[in-house]
Amino acid sequence: MASSKFSAIFFLILYSVLLYLVFTMHNMAAMYLMGIGMFLEACEGVYCNFFKH
Fold first, then answer.
1. Enclosing H/E stretch for 33
2. Once rounded to an integer, what is the mean pLDDT over residues 35-43?
3. Is residue 20 predicted with pLDDT exceeding 60?
4. pTM, entire model
5. Is 4 exposed, middle or buried (0-12, 13-18, 19+ CB in 10 A)?
6. Between the CA of residue 37 and those of 15, 26, 32, 48, what are the distances in Å?
7. What is the C-alpha separation between 35 and 51, in angstroms, rounded?
8. pLDDT at residue number 2
9. Position 18 pLDDT exceeds 80
């Protein structure tokens, strides 16, 4: 749920790094990054729904 161009580019880069980690078999680092990415997307969704006018 990218609400701006900046967040869309940020998540594209974040998930590109995640994909690289998966392909290079760094699974624990990939899981940590996936958890961080999901948490940040959830925070962005809450911000957009409750605080943005």
1. helix 27-50
2. 95
3. yes
4. 0.80
5. exposed
6. 8, 16, 9, 16
7. 23
8. 60
9. yes
Phi-psi region of 2 (alpha: psi -120 to 50; beta: other; left: phi over 0): beta
Whole-number Å distance between alpha carbons of 17 and 23? 10
Two tokens at 5?
A: 């161009």
Question: Looking at the predicted structure, is the pLDDT value of residue 1 above 60?
Answer: no
* Opening angle at CA 49, ends 44 and 51, nearest 5: 85
- Which residue type occupies 18? L
CB-CB contact of 41 with 18 (8 Å): no
What's the confidence (pLDDT) of residue 53? Answer: 66
N-to-C CA span, the chain? 17
